[in-house]
Amino acid sequence: PISLCRPSPEEAQLWSEAFDELLANKYGLAAFRAFLKSEFCEENIEFWLACEDFKKTKSPQKLTSKAKKIYNDFIEKEAPKEINIDFQTKNMIAQNIQEATHTCFSAAQKRVYSLMENNSYPRFLESEFYQELCK
Question: Which segments does the entry list as coiled coil (predicted)?
Answer without folding.
Answer: none
